[in-house]
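The pair is set out directly below:
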Amino acid sequence: MKTIVTKMEETNLDNDVLDKAGEILRNGGLVAFPTETVYGLGGNALDEEAAGRIYEAKGRPSDNPLIVHIAKFKDLVALVEDISENAKILMANFWPGPLTIIFKKSKLVPDAITGGLDTVAIRMPSHPLALALIEKANIPVAAPSANTSGKPSPTIAKHVVEDLDGRVDMIIDGGDTGFGVESTVVDVSGEEPMILRPGGITAEDLKELFGSVNIDPALDYGKSDVAPKSPGQKYKHYSPKAEVVIFESDSLERLAAGIKEKYDAYVDDGYNVGIMATEETEEYYEGYCSLVVGNRAEPISIAANLFKKLREFDELNVDFILAEGLDELGINLAIMNRLKKAAGGKLIFID
């Protein structure tokens, strides 16, 4: 398959390209496009064959549900059986935006989209290009992250091309995405909303609305036998070629010292090693192979760069990535969720 790769600025949308991309989607083809979180791989959410093409292009297990994207509130009605009061509150406050809501699906939504579940995950992105594309297609668009399954999600088009060139019909290069990790997924079927996947809408944001919020115990990687219910949480995800190990400590100085000690041990054993540092600790790693992911005081900078830095370590051909852990408040919960998935739960605490 010859993949069309085209550039477009979100402030200067090309209607001819969007018309072509919409036609591809309506006809069952696949289009990768930027959202405010990561790049998505879009297909017709009402077409089982299109769903199959998404799974095939990504190498994604077919029991891993896909998130359906819509551009208008009225588009939701035909896709779900009912809209609860809690769902209406979430939609009023966070749509368009990086929030996915779990609904009971209608018969219109194929089982291939939902991984055989009787629920469907739906969100309305805020990215102007994504909204324009969905409107042009005039269909709901299923769009998981536009990477091959298991690899770090793409936040720039270059990484989409690396993974999916020749596997999809079109890739729209809209520049860097904004937030950098996938949307928050919330189940509102119970009395209290439950976060199934943390993202840009934080637990603290939800507590302001509802007073309290539950967090799926399956998110506690390696400490729960509960099966995840959210897209992107069932299988190992976000993994570079290198093995990722997370380090935590109550002191940044001790944290850096422990990471350097492990780094030296790996190097002595003949391995190539990289350190994922923050601006606050960069000075500790002079003379070591390190990349700065962002600023701890501005966690959005870390979220925006996380997947990009994991892929940069692949380009450096390292065998191990030694990553600094964060507290799990606010956006850091989403960052640590992705890091723990990338590390397969490998975490070392340094006293």
